[in-house]
What we know:
Radius of gyration: 19 Å
CATH class of the largest domain: Alpha Beta
Structural class: mainly beta
Number of strands: 9
Amino acid sequence: MKIAKDTLVKLTYTLRFDKADGEIIEVIGEKDAMDIVVGHGILLESFEERITGLQAGDSFSFSLNPTEAYGDYDEEKFVRVPKAELLEGLPEEAAENIFEGNIIPIVDADETTYEAMITEIQDDIVSLDFNHPLSGETLFFEGKILSVRQATDADIKAAEESLD
């Protein structure tokens, strides 16, 4: 069976920066093989397009430029806020989560939640980066399709719920 929308795919991959011999970002091996339902936003759309048509046993190797991956880095998604404002209305123990490198949820006035990485803390000012950690990067994937089968209704429901 070939990979298409609503198929359940088990795959492995190595993700690197830029090219085949670039720095390794992530490795999903056979023991941790990833199960995805294609066409439901689990993986990048451009990744799914590249593996569509492959079948069990096939290998893949491709790059995604920033536009195809997580977009270009946007300076406007970098903000500095007073630490007190960031912690306003939160329990006292929330202050433990304010440290450089941590990714924290931020809820706006419309109750929409965003993730931001704390990039710097200076005195009482916290610098937040709302860009995806891989924005602006070219990504290189190399992997193998282990299995492909038609997704069940339960598979599709579980995939959609995982995005909520």
